[in-house]
Amino acid sequence: MILVAVLAMWMLAKDYSEIDLQIRIIISAGAAILSGGISYFLFNVDKEKK
User: Fold this and answer.
1) N or C: which end of the chain has fewer CB within 10 A?
2) pTM score, two decimals?
3) How many CB atoms lie within 10 A of CB 11?
């Protein structure tokens, strides 16, 4: 999740510098939460099968 947030901030700062910092933080936080949720459900399924 942290890696996704850092990469999202970097990409938004590099390619979309006209977006305000607060909006970039919100977008990065949303991406991190979404990736964390997807990872949680995908890895949770593997634990239940064992």
Assistant:
1) C
2) 0.78
3) 14
